[in-house]
Specification:
- This protein is mainly β and 127 residues long.
- It has one helix and eight strands, in the order E-E-E-E-E-E-E-E-H.
- It is elongated and about 80 Å long.
Length: 127
C-alpha cells in the first residue's frame, strides 16, 4: 500500500465517492487501484507484492487535481524497502539417547515473499 498525504484538500469532490480514480500512475507500472480515502489522502492498493529495493515514481496528470489546487511538482519518487531477513526464534536440540544426533530449528521473518525453495538454495549452515 502506498499512501500520499497532501497538506490540504486535493481531491475533486466527485472523485471522493469513486472506488478508483484515473490520472495518476506509477513508474515502473504496477497493477492496482488508486482511490481517495479522504480529500487529502490518496492511496494506491497494489494487486501484487512490491518488489524489494526499487525506485518508484508517482506521476500525476496536470488535470488530476481541481484547478484551485496548485502543485509544486507532478512527479515524486520513493523507494520500496530493501529485502531483509531476521531470525525470530532459534532452537537447538540434542537427542538425549543419542548425543551425536543434533538439530537446529530457526524461525525466519522476511520482509518480502520468496518463492518456495528459493530460500533453501541460499541458506548455508556452517559448523
Amino acid at each position: 500500500r502506498l499512501v500520499v498525504y497532501f497538506s490540504e484538500s486535493a481531491a475533486r469532490l466527485e472523485d471522493l465517492k469513486k472506488p478508483s480514480v484515473q490520472g495518476v500512475q506509477l513508474q515502473p507500472h504496477r497493477n492496482g487501484t488508486w482511490r481517495w480515502i479522504q480529500a487529502d489522502i490518496l492511496v494506491f492498493e497494489p494487486t501484487e507484492d512490491w518488489p524489494a529495493d526499487q525506485k518508484i515514481r508517482v506521476v500525476f496528470d496536470r488535470k488530476f487535481f481541481p484547478s484551485h489546487v496548485l502543485m509544486e511538482r507532478y512527479v515524486y519518487e520513493t523507494d520500496t524497502p530493501p529485502f531483509g531477513i531476521a531470525i525470530k526464534q532459534l532452537e537447538l536440540y540434542q537427542d538425549p539417547t543419542n548425543p551425536t544426533q543434533r538439530a537446529i530449528t530457526a524461525t525466519l521473518e522476511l520482509t518480502h515473499a520468496v518463492d518456495p525453495g528459493e530460500l533453501d538454495r541460499h541458506l548455508e549452515l556452517k559448523t
